[in-house]
Specification:
Order of helices and strands: HHHHHHHHH
Shape: elongated
Largest sheet: none
Helix content: over 70%
Strand content: under 5%
Number of domains: 2
Radius of gyration: 17 Å
Number of helices: 9
Structural class: mainly alpha
Number of strands: 0
CATH topology of the largest domain: Tetracycline Repressor, domain 2
Length: 174
Amino acid sequence: MTRPLRQDAAERREKLLLAAETAFARDGLDAPLHLIAEQAGVGRATLYRNFADRSELALAVFLKQIDDLAQRTRAQLDDPDVFIWFLEQMTRLMLDSAGLSSAIRDLKDEALAPIRQGLKAAGAEALAVSQAAGRVRPDLTVEDIRVLALMLGAPSRTAPAKAREALSLRDRKS
């Protein structure tokens, strides 16, 4: 059993995650780790004490983004179209984090389990609300969310500009 981090250690870890998220978005996954540590205001040893390597840091950043999406989804549960909103946000996340998602795609299933569980839980709540409101087909299941996530991630690898354009058109209609 792992002990919870001391408050100062937890704060440093959070600063590292925020700096990594910014650096990965700006420079891709090749962002120099020493610059991430510097941006977070910590030394390299602190970075490596928290994250063994670049993949572990990328996984932690992506998991944080999934957790954020889950929290924002729960805040939208009074909207009958929350499942559509969830899918749009998931698409944006896949586009904005294309490098992260491709970096973790090859990780073992047990490493990806928290990400899948987070998406599944948030999606299930949103799906139930939208189905109850008659906005989503009643035969769509929680298991379909994983397939949807894979399909939504495909444009981030093949045609990100077109995917962003489609989302912006959707935004203008709203």
